[in-house]
Design goal:
single chain; alpha+beta; 2,3-Dihydroxybiphenyl 1,2-Dioxygenase, domain 1; 2 domains; 35% strand; globular
Amino acid sequence: MQAKATLPRLGHVALPASDPHRLGGFYRDLLDLQIVRETDHPLAGQEVQLTGHPLDGSHELVFFTNPEARHVAFGVDTRDQLTSYYGRAREAGVAIPYAHDSGRAISFFLRDPEDNLVEIYWATGQPRRENPPISDPAAIHQLVAGA
């Protein structure tokens, strides 16, 4: 009997904030979340990432200054799953506006029928790299599908 594929899991929620550092401090102080990264992101602006699970090296909550970058992210367990979801989105005619290789994860972004931005990512386990997001369709395909 073939094992059932693992479904994507909620990875993080990314919300806009006029002052991400102040808002991050609020959640740090109120809920004991840890700030794990503060940066300027090419698409999101000033960004603060928080987690309640600092040992796993990830984040669950992100605040940034660019409201257009608001999104919800789903993680998958394997590169094959990432490629499969990417193929399903393309077959359904869903536009893929950009993708990103941060070193730690490879991800692609799409918009749902209500125009919400959705990220689907695979955590590679590699160190973080400061790569800009890519928007060229051929480059996105090469990154996500490896073809």
